[in-house]
Sequence to fold (140 residues):
Amino acid sequence: MKTFIIEDNKFYANVLNARLEKFMEGSIDIYHSGKEALNNIYKQPNLIFLDYNLPDIKGLDILKQIKSTYPNIQVVLLSGQEKIEIAVNCLRYGAMDYIIKNNEDHNERIEKIFNDLKEFELDINPKKSSTPFFRRLFNF
Fold:
């Protein structure tokens, strides 16, 4: 699985990278600006962890650009903002999830995202799984 981390705080980006390496296979590319990430979006990662407050381009604007060109790329917004309106707006524009940085369940939510994506990959190859992904995701 190819993953991008788009985060201007280099320390936080490295901490997130170390966490992701513990439970994922594949490569992780780190970008510290929105422009740098958008210049590399042609690599079509499976998953992007995107900071909401980047100095050059707002995360929501990056999300819109990514989804307009590559709608199948999954994007998780990361932010220190706890405003529900921001989270809802991000989800409305196609974010897979909105995670508040350094919140108590931060690590568990990131791990769940990877587990859900692994389940989705099983659905692409039906020999590995007979239960649809959304059925397993919502337990029905």
About this structure: DSSP finds six helices and five strands in the chain.
